[in-house]
Design a protein that fits this description.
The protein has 1523 residues and is of the alpha/beta class. The protein has 52 helices and 41 strands. An eight-stranded parallel β-sheet has the order 4-5-3-6-7-2-8-17. A six-stranded parallel β-sheet has the order 9-16-15-10-14-11, with helices on both faces. Helix 32 runs antiparallel to helix 36, helix 35 packs across helix 36 and helix 44 crosses helix 46.
Length: 1523
């Protein structure tokens, strides 16, 4: 059983099962039962036992966490208050603070000044140092060319063709100039002076084989003085007559003027590659290359950062003496005298012993294959014709005939399928088979390289394991370029494809010759097998360097009882040790010390160094303590995804002294600090740390005790959104009526304003538009739908006249009578007759089209005054026997005694009589349904006796008006559908004087006036805020139609239909504009802040708590619409009701609604969105149209950090920093020219563009330009805005959840990283991080291959792994740069989107399933699928701190088969589980299943393994000792 405990928002989609919510970071039952008396039998007992293990482990870890806190407390304390032992402990930790990249920076600095050979382990980043050096020489060369000096070029030399294109690709990722790879295989076009002149013109760097440069120099295509830098890859090859040596001897040394010689930089893992005296060979190498060897003083510093494999010596039984198989004997008997076959017979016999009978036979299958046989024939023909003495052609023909006969024999021969036994295969191959089965018996991400000596061996092993490897082993071969084994010709293309397939996982096992040892970009492997042992120490070191994966293994395969094999292993290890000792014995000026060895001695002399004593507390900062203070400050920074943070110290030399710059993590409030010059590196380093601490204290990021303030303050700021309880709600008063209705109330109006009310698609019966007369003119209202019976929808349209018309007292009296009659007859409400208290009046209208055609002088001309007069004079019509039947057609009939019964008459039914029984299809009424007359009278029995009726009266067919008022929402199931047909007698009913078409429109009026009330309240909100927003968007911004409108994607709770669009879409847009606006204001107003401070300040502006406080201060809660249409609130206020439901109520009715704190914050964002949408036009950017949105931001954030009211105010507030306007260098101008070719925008400030491409790892001292994070902060928000605009306008009906989900791929690092590569921006990145360089190269290769394979599909980038974040950062910072450079012109952002991004998102449906790769999901897949384990679990506990005031730590644990194998601690359970999962992944990824099961005692049933039928045990495969 697998149980994973998650926070509610942290559960991966494919988790197996979930416990109760982890609200208190503890398992709910983790302490339920601590007993563990017997082996658990039931699942409940098993879980309790697991809980006991978790508790014990957590207790142990709590002690460790406490010990670490105490140690940290010591680090934070003042030296004067500590004991001697504590001070020593503190200084010890200080001395150990070393950045693993120091040796790279120092090698780079040294290589700038003199010729050196860098001796560093495989995987230690030598190519990164070369990239830094090339970048430096390119910058210098650009300055030289700008000064019109003769151009020079750099050469990166490699020893083999296969490395040319690989290293060229690596350099292209790290350099922002063209890099060309050249090898001799390119043919005749290589050797042309014109071709080389073109190459020198177009490139700054050429990667080529050394022989190419030799020929180039020899032909004088280029001279040595035209080269500024020579880089020798795998420099140990420089000896005797090697091309490396010839370049130095024949051309470099010939140039007697040292100033005209190029700089030399050599790279190697070992200065020797043969069994020679190491010191002598190293000296000869230095002399030959005119260099000095340089390495690190402590090689373990590098090795600690490179995964090293465990090494096993694997023995196989002694091989038999070579023998002849039956096929061999047959061929020898028939063709043994043919001289070309002599070597083939020797090789076949040798293979019989080393690989077995089957391999010996199979060797002939490709040795005499058709293509290979043809080559043998051609070779024999050449020999024949080359003979001086002529021989008869018949002899040649006979020999060729026999060759063809031999080939035909092999072609017809039936080769068997090999079996894993000693009859077919040798013991050596069988042991290899066992080991490969251990790694590839099931689906696995493992990679393996099997090194062999001969090409034929690689080919045969590939064939063997094609049969025996199983379904999960996918093998290939990797050999030198242009080698040929049988019919397999290895071209450069095939080699590149093989490596690419290996990297992608299409191949997972490579049988390789020595070509895979050196330089080739082979992915990190889990298993390296030396099937044939190495011949030299460097071969051993380099092949072992391929096993860089976690949990990797390196196998030395030796023959039992073979002393030569044992000696080879021991000799290689001994030679490596001697090489290490030699490197350590180099003079001091050759060693890269990182920190000086005599650190403590230097600090003893610190009396002359500066100190700082805080005046408020007396806390003292010294040079030595500054390292610890700074380290503790950095450790206190919030870690987000829990990536470890550390300072990076960059050392340079100025005027013969060391100057150090410390670069702090990205989220530090201080980015960097530069120390004072010092004669010792250790002192320079302490000086930089001291300066950083002083800056932090000045900025109040360190308190008076030199402790970081972020221990308590920062998490609150970082989680400002959480300062609002997401579920907290309060009751607030809600406005029901707009204040406009109260205008002039108490007086008789002298002027009225007409609004015509009409519908677009008619009603259910004939109608006529009606007029609404108000005391003040109404704004133009948007159209809105009303929902009739049977699903019919029509829209209400209105037209308000801005000019009024004068009215007399009589006119007001007439209109008041009609209006109150309508309330009484239609809605059964009787009000007091007081026109001074009315807010508006009804008016029947003439046909508006007729009025317009006839011409009108006043809006009053639209009113049908004759109808008004009739209604005023006639309260009702009563039926009399004299009334004509025609008069009863289409009348409005009112039940006198039942306010719920109203009818529209159709016509008289002449064939029916009053006492006729009700027709079957007619509606029934209560219990009075004996006759039509009985149905028509709604009186009860007692009252019925008081009336007598004319039985001769006619019967009228009619439709009862349904009891439905809320036409703003579709009819519910309980509401009647269709027409309610009935038959009535007219005498018991009142025949209303109101015309039926007018009444039909009046029935829509409750819905109309409710919506008008809401629109008018929304307009008043805009007046309150001072914003120019129309009624439609303003109301949308205020509408909350469910209890959880703010929870996008959740099922709506208590949804209230008929309220129109809610605020969610506008809130989505407003949130984005708010982010952009506050980002710009933060950027322009805080020029000296870093990205971390930007985020904090912006968060304080846009956090929900701040917006909520604004909403409270403005009383926005009164204006928010959270109530749907109500029968009791649509009536006019101010009038006293005399009859009808609600007439007995007294006093003002106060209505309150429940609003969540976050809902009010959301409404603030929605208003920003409404202000933007009201004035913006897609594709027509005009900054003035965004002024209202900017003003809305100012109002809602209500802060001095955003005082802008118009878009132009942002630019006015921006002062260009000095670095931006300073004169650009040639390198910076060149960058601007190159980037302009990729996106047609001309930068006025090239240094601003350079900033967009500087990674935080590059020292500020190098160019005096800040890194890209400030621009990235700005560009991120700008891209967000353009992405959201694209989605918002293109998909107007999609909800915010859909918009959010489909914005995710657009803003993801995954897409932006791919876009960076698409634009080739990555080559311009300036950084100083070897690991990053490798990650970029890996990603670039992967994403470019994915694009090719996608065949035009826009979503190709989703299939590639996550890119380095810096690639996405480059795109964002570039967008920020063009925005600033263009004086804040958003058109440039839009243009960048249209030209480069839009094409990826034309069809958003392809991103419906876009998801992130969650660590817990990966761990689940690894354990359940790859490793076949089902008995594991993750749980969390809280560990209370013993330090007063410190918060508890969340501890997550991963348990596998009763053992906790990994844990992670963090400030929250969410991050603790992610950290624990990542730790477990580090431990488990790369393990073959057999090793996992052995190491963790996994005995889970694995059907896949059970069905393999392989009875061999692990012990059979391993046999031997561990080194």
């Amino acid at each position: 059983m697998v149980v994973i405990l998650f926070d509610g928002d942290d559960e991966p989609e494919d988790s197996q099962s979930v416990d109760v919510p982890d609200q208190d970071l503890n398992d709910s039952d983790i302490d339920a039962d601590d007993s563990h008396q017997h082996g658990p039998r039931t699942s409940l007992e098993k879980r309790k036992a697991q809980n006991a293990i978790f508790k014990a482990w957590a207790s142990k870890k709590a002690e460790e966490i406490t010990a670490k806190e105490v140690k940290d407390a010591i680090q934070r304390a003042d030296d004067e208050t500590l004991s001697i032992s504590d001070i020593l402990a503190k200084q010890e930790s200080s001395a150990r603070i070393t950045n693993p990249r120091d040796y790279q920076n120092e090698l780079f600095q040294k290589a700038k000044e003199e010729n050196i050979i860098a001796v560093l382990d495989t995987g230690s980043g030598k190519t990164h140092i070369a990239t830094l050096l090339l970048r430096h020489f390119i910058d210098e060369e650009l300055e030289r060319r700008a000064a019109e000096a003769p151009p020079k070029i750099s050469f990166f030399l490699v020893d083999s063709v296969n490395l040319v294109f690989q290293q060229a690709n690596v350099l292209r990722c790290g350099l922002d100039h063209d890099v060309e790879g050249i090898c001799g295989a390119m043919g005749a076009q290589l050797w042309s002076k014109r071709a080389w002149d073109k190459r020198f013109t177009n490139n700054m760097v050429i990667v080529c084989t050394a022989e190419v440069l030799v020929q180039c120099l020899m032909h004088s295509f280029i001279n040595i003085h035209q080269i500024n830098l020579l880089i020798f890859d795998e420099a140990h090859h420089a000896k005797k007559n090697h091309s490396y040596a010839r370049i130095i001897k024949d051309f470099y040394l010939v140039q007697t003027d040292p100033s005209k010689r190029p700089r030399i930089f050599g790279m190697t893992a070992s200065p020797v590659d043969a069994k020679v005296d190491i010191q002598q060979a190293a000296r000869e190498l230095e002399k030959l290359l005119h260099c000095k060897i340089a390495t690190t003083s402590d090689l373990s510093l590098i090795r600690n950062n490179i995964n090293r494999p465990s090494e096993d010596v694997v023995e196989y039984d002694r091989l038999p003496t070579p023998f002849e198989t039956l096929l061999h004997q047959e061929l020898k008997a028939r063709f043994g005298d043919i001289s070309p076959f002599e070597k083939l017979f020797q090789e076949s016999k040798k293979i019989s012993a080393e690989l077995g009978r089957w391999a010996s036979d199979m060797f002939w299958s490709f040795s005499l294959a058709e293509e290979q046989a043809r080559k043998i024939e051609m070779r024999e023909e050449r020999k024949f014709h080359a003979q001086k003495e002529g021989n008869p052609i018949a002899k040649l023909d006979a020999q060729i005939a026999r060759l063809r006969e031999a080939a035909q024999v092999i072609k017809d021969y039936s080769f068997s399928t090999p079996e894993a036994n000693s009859r077919d295969l040798s013991s050596k191959v069988l042991v290899l088979h066992k080991w490969l089965q251990l790694y590839f018996s099931r689906q696995s991400d493992a990679r393996c390289i099997v090194f062999v000596e001969r090409r034929s061996t690689a080919r045969l092993l590939h064939l063997i394991f094609g049969y025996l490897g199983g379904a999960h082993l996918k093998s290939g071969v990797l050999m030198g370029v242009n080698s040929s084994v049988g019919d397999l010709t290895i071209t450069l293309r095939k080699q590149v494809l093989a490596v690419a397939s290996f990297r992608k996982g299409d191949l997972n096992c490579i049988f390789a010759t020595s070509v895979a040892e050196e330089g080739l970009d082979i992915p990190q492997c889990n298993l390296i097998v030396r099937f044939d042992l190495y011949r030299t120490m460097i071969s051993y070191v380099q092949s072992r360097g391929r096993a860089r994966h976690r949990n990797s293994k390196y196998l030395h395969m030796v023959e039992k009882g073979n002393p030569m094999h044992t000696q080879a292993v021991l000799e290689a290890r001994r030679s490596e040790k001697l090489m290490r000792q030699f490197c350590q014995s180099l003079p001091a000026d050759r060693l890269l010390l990182g920190n000086d060895v005599d650190f403590e001695n230097d600090m003893v002399k610190e009396r002359g160094f500066r100190t700082f004593t805080d005046p408020s507390t007396g806390a003292k900062l010294t040079y030595s303590s500054s390292l610890a203070v700074l380290a503790h400050f950095i450790s206190s920074l919030p870690q987000g995804n829990e990536v470890p943070l550390q300072p990076n110290y960059i050392m340079s030399i100025e005027a013969g002294k060391f100057v150090c710059e410390v670069i702090l993590p990205d989220n530090s409030p201080i980015n960097s600090a530069i120390g004072r010059p010092a004669s010792k590196k250790s002192v320079a380093k302490c000086s930089a740390a001291f300066e950083a601490c002083i800056l932090l204290r000045k900025g109040k990021y360190l308190d008076g005790n030199l402790l970081p303030i972020y221990t308590k303050q920062l998490p609150v700021m970082r989680n400002a959104i959480l300062a609002l309880d997401m579920k907290k709600k309060n009751f607030y008063r809600m406005r029901i009526k707009p204040s406009v209705w109260a205008y002039g109330r108490g007086d008789l109006p002298v002027t009225l304003y007409l609004t015509i009310l009409d519908v677009t698609n008619g009603l259910e019966r004939p109608y006529q538009p009606m007029g609404l007369l108000t005391r003040v003119p109404l704004p133009q209202m948007p159209r809105f739908p009303v929902y009739l019976r049977e699903g019919k929808v029509t829209e209400v349209k209105s037209m308000s006249f801005g000019s009024g018309f004068d009215v007399s007292g009589d006119m007001i009296e007439h209109l008041t009578t009609l209006t109150l009659r309508a309330y009484k007859d239609i809605f059964a409400k009787t009000y007091e007759h007081d026109p001074t208290k009315l807010s508006y009046w009804f008016a029947p209208l003439r046909d508006p089209k007729t009025v317009v055609m006839e011409g009108y002088e006043s809006p009053a001309d639209f009113i049908n005054w004759s109808v008004v007069q009739d209604v005023f004079e006639t309260e009702e019509y009563k039926w009399t026997p004299d009334m004509k039947h025609e008069y009863l057609r289409y009348r409005f009939l009112v039940d006198k005694w039942d306010g719920g019964r109203r009818f529209f008459s159709v016509e008289v039914a002449p064939d029916m009589k009053a006492m006729d029984p009700l027709p079957a299809h007619s509606e029934k009424y209560k219990k009075f349904n004996d006759s039509i007359l009985d149905y028509s009278v709604s009186l009860w029995n007692k009252s019925r006796k008081n009336y007598s009726w004319d039985l001769s009266q006619p019967v009228v067919e009619a439709e009862r008006v349904p009891f439905r008022r809320n036409l703003l929402a579709p009819a519910e199931e309980k509401e009647h559908d269709g027409k309610i047909r009935c038959f009535v007698c007219p005498e018991p009913l009142r025949i209303s004087a109101l015309p039926a078409p007018f009444v039909a429109m009046c029935y829509v009026f409750p819905a109309i006036i409710h919506r008008f009330d809401s629109y008018l309240i929304a307009v008043e909100t805009c007046d309150l805020l001072g914003l120019n927003i129309g009624p439609g968007l303003a109301l949308e911004a205020l509408t909350k139609d469910s209890d959880n409108s703010d929870e996008n994607g959740e099922e709506k709770i208590n949804f209230r239909s008929g309220m129109g669009p809610n605020y969610e879409r506008l809130e989505f847009m407003g949130d984005c504009f708010l982010k952009m606006a506050t980002s710009i204001s933060t950027f322009v107003q805080n020029p000296d802040d870093n990205e971390f401070e930007f985020h904090v300040k912006r968060m304080c502006l846009l956090c929900n708590k701040n917006l909520f406080e604004t909403a409270i201060n403005l009383k926005l809660y009164e204006y928010i619409r959270s109530m749907a249409f109500s029968r009791r609130t649509w009536y006019p206020e101010g009038l006293k009701m005399l009859e009808g439901k609600g007439s007995k109520k007294t006093g003002e009715e106060v209505i309150k609604h429940s609003l969540g704190d976050k809902s009010m914050a959301d409404v603030c964002e929605a208003f920003i969105g409404a202000a933007f949408m009201e004035h913006n036009e897609l594709g027509e950017y005009d900054p003035k149209k965004w002024d209202q949105a900017v003003k809305a931001v100012k109002i809602m954030v209500s802060s001095d950090d955003h005082t802008m009211e118009t878009w132009a105010d942002y630019l006015k507030a921006y002062s260009k920093p000095k670095y931006q306007v300073a004169e650009a260098t040639a390198s910076q101008l060149d960058l601007a020219a190159q980037i302009e070719k990729k996106h047609h925008y001309h930068f006025r400030y090239p240094r601003l563009l350079r900033s967009a491409f500087i990674h935080p790892s590059q020292s500020f001292m190098w160019e005096k330009i800040p890194h890209y994070q400030r621009l990235e902060f700005l560009g991120d928000s700008l891209l967000d805005m353009v992405f959201v605009m694209h989605l918002f306008y293109r998909y107007p009906n999609k909800d915010p959840q859909w918009l959010t989900e489909h914005k995710m791929p657009m803003v993801s690092n995954k897409f932006l990283g791919a876009l960076c590569v698409k634009l080739n921006f990555h080559g311009h990145l300036r950084h100083n991080n070897a690991v990053l360089q490798h990650q970029i190269q890996e990603y670039v290769t992967g994403v470019q291959e994915a694009e090719i394979e996608a065949n035009g599909s826009a979503d190709y980038w989703t299939t590639v792994s996550e890119p380095p974040k810096c690639l996405a950062d480059i795109v964002e910072s570039y967008v920020g740069a063009i925005f600033v450079d263009s004086d804040f012109d958003f058109n440039e952002v839009q243009r960048f989107f249209d030209q480069h991004i839009k094409v990826f998102f034309e069809d958003m449906s392809i991103y419906d399933a876009f998801a992130n790769n969650h660590p817990i999901t990966r761990l689940t897949k690894l354990l359940n699928i790859n490793l076949g384990c089902c008995d594991w679990r993750i749980a969390t506990r809280l560990c209370e701190s013993t330090i007063p005031g410190a918060r508890p730590t969340a501890l997550a644990m991963v348990l596998i088969h009763w053992n906790v194998i990994a844990d992670g601690s963090a400030i929250s359970g969410r991050y603790a589980r992610i950290k624990a999962s990542n730790t477990a992944l580090d431990l488990l990824e790369g393990l073959p299943q057999y090793e996992f099961r052995r190491r963790f005692g996994c005995d889970c049933v694995d059907e896949e393994l059970e069905n393999t039928g392989d009875g061999g045990g692990i012990g059979e495969a391993i046999g031997g000792l561990v080194i």
